Amino acid sequence: MSKPYTIIIGLEVHVQLATKSKLFCGCSTAFGAPPNTQTCPVCIGMPGSLPVMNREAFELSLKTAVALNCEIPRLTKWDRKQYYYPDLPKGYQISQFDLPLSRNGRLPISDPKGLFEPKSIGIIRAHLEEDAGKSMHDEISGKADSRIDLNRTGTPLLEIVSEPDIRSPDEAKTYLTELKLLLNYLGVSDCNMQEGSLRVDANINLHIDTPEGQRVTPIVEVKNMNSFRAVQRALDYEARRQYDVWQETGIAMGARGGHKTTRGWDENAQATVPQRTKEESSDYRYFPDPDLVPVTTTEEQVARIGAGLGELPAALRERLQNTYDITPYDADVLVNQGRGLVDYFVELADGCGDGKMAANWVQQDVLRWLGEQQVGVEAFPISAEVLAGLLKKVQGGELTTSRGRDVLAAMLESGKPLEAVMQALGIESVDQGELETLCSELLAANPKVVENIKEGKLKAIGSLIGQAKRRNPNVNPSQVRETCLRLIEQM
Ligand SMILES: [Zn+2]
To answer: 439: CA distance to ligand 1 center in Å?
Structure first.
């Protein structure tokens, strides 16, 4: 059943860039140091200290903006965003206001299960800014006590603002997953949500169709979501809540507009709850930072960055599908695991000459083991080359698929090489001569079955295969079948 409204969602993502030092000083950005040990006069804003831009942070931002198909203006500048908060001792944050380093980009998204039509989400802008510190309320003493840790102050953040092009919580989750994957492939951030390296704010409202025309609910900004799953749930909840409020009160605007409010996601209650209302953008009194010079970017620089991006997820999915004849779903699973797993798959598929088979074994066996051990593919003890050797034995009929899986499991368990494991499991390859002798003996001992097969009752061959397996567990059923049929034809 279609809903009587359209959900309008725009996402703001803050990504901590993977630089060793902060945006305007040399302090470390490492996570987990004792509070206030990674600060200096610049990042805590002592009078007379002067910021100097971290060139690497700027390059990583450009790289991301180019990968997001953004326009890169030739000139960008720094602005002070004025506000007071205990975790911001300077009294302002250095950000970018009217001349961001990039704008008008897009990120295509699709769902391999077909939850929605493939589409392109617009990127309004991606700009660079410094992070504030962290307030810890009652976390240490358990009493009414607040402390401030300024280690994070001045850490480079790239803020990526999407157009309100997202139409469902599913699309929002897919957009975030695709963006995170892109950032991972680019190597610009570790995207660790638990450590705050990736933070998401969502703007959501509804367009409701009524007999009197379209009604628009006031925009709500939802904060405080610490996983993509939480974003999806919060948006689901918020859409329902806004519709309920509209049905009860009829509060909605005839056109775009109305007060924007802020709500936080309460994970325990599985609900959004009101938060302090954000100041309007004019209240920040942005003005150009007098201590920092504007940054110019040349066309050559952008072209060089574009050429060095490497193969990005969308292109990689397409190549895997086309080159290895695997499904969009399989390509998606492989690419979403990261470059390392894709490289493993490619080597395996090339080694055994069968992309579908390689995709199947990587997903069923390799990924399951990695999941159980909670490690990445670099820790998988069996090289793609060795696994390809095993798959060839399955292709050649020396091992059945299930026997092959037993061998792989035993190799992972014992750490022994392929041949040793096969020997230990009592698996010896049955050569063609041996197989023919066995089949001839069976045919001679089962004249009734042979007669049935000759009359076209092919099912009868099952009894021969069963007998063959009892006499030699190493025989391959499909080879027994083939050989018996050939021998009967020759009779
Ligand atoms: Zn510093």
So the answer is: 80
How many Å lie between the centroid of ligand 1 and the Cα of residue 17?
16
How far is the centre of ligand 1, averaged over its atoms, from the C-alpha of 28 (Å)? 8
pLDDT of residue 319: 96
Q: Which two tokens stand for residue 422?
A: 């096969």
- Output the CA 131–ligand 1 centroid distance in Å: 12
The dihedrals phi and psi of 59, each to the nearest 5 degrees, come to -65, -45
Q: Name the phi and psi angles at 429, rounded to 5.
A: -70, 140
The amino acid at 129: E
Q: Could you tell me the distance, in angstroms and rounded to a whole number, from the CA of residue 21 to the centre of ligand 1?
A: 8
Q: Report, as an integer, the average pLDDT of 471-490.
A: 85
How remote is the CA of residue 153 from the centroid of ligand 1, in Å? 8
428: Cβ contacts below 8 Å, ≥ 6 apart: 422, 474
477 conformational bin, left if phi > 0, alpha if psi -120 to 50, beta if neither: alpha
Identify whether the C-beta of residue 153 lies closer than 8 Å to the C-beta of residue 132: yes
**Where would I find the H helices in 327-431?**
328-336, 339-352, 355-361, 367-373, 384-395, 401-414, 418-424
In tens, the pLDDT along 416-441 reads 988 888 888 877 767 778 888 999 99
% residues pLDDT > 90 (the chain): 69
Cα 444 to ligand 1 centre (Å):
88
Distance in angstroms (rounded) separating the CA atoms of residues 170 and 236: 9
Q: Name residues whose C-beta falls within 8 Å of residue 443's C-beta, 6 or more positions apart in sequence.
A: 450, 464, 484, 487, 488, 491
Asked if residue 172 lies in contact with residue 121, where contact means CB atoms within 8 angstroms, the answer is: no
Distance 87 CA to ligand 1 centre (A): 14
- For residue 73, give both structure tokens: 């203006």
**Taking a C-beta distance cutoff of 8 angstroms, is the pair 80, 92 a contact?**
yes
Distance CA 466, CA 471 (A): 9
450: Cα within 13 Å, side-chain hemisphere: 17
> How far does residue 81's CA lie from ligand 1's centre (Å)?
19
Reduce the DSSP state of residue 265 to 3 states and report it: strand
pTM for this predicted structure = 0.84
CA distance 195 to 33: 12
pLDDT tier at 256, thresholds 50, 70, 90: very low
Pairing, β 261-266 against β 220-225: parallel
DSSP symbols for 211-254: TTEEEEPPPEEEEEE-SHHHHHHHHHHHHHHHHHHHHHH---BS
Instruction: Tell me how far the alpha carbon of residue 35 lies from the centroid of ligand 1, in angstroms.
Output: 13
Count of Cβ atoms closer than 10 Å to residue 394 Cβ: 22
pLDDT at 84: 87
- Residue-wise burial string across 246-262, b where 16 or more C-beta atoms lie within 10 A, e elsewhere: beeeeebeeeeeeeeeb
Residues shown for the chain: 491
**Residue 318, Cβ density class (10 Å: 0-12 exposed, 13-18 middle, ≥19 buried):** middle
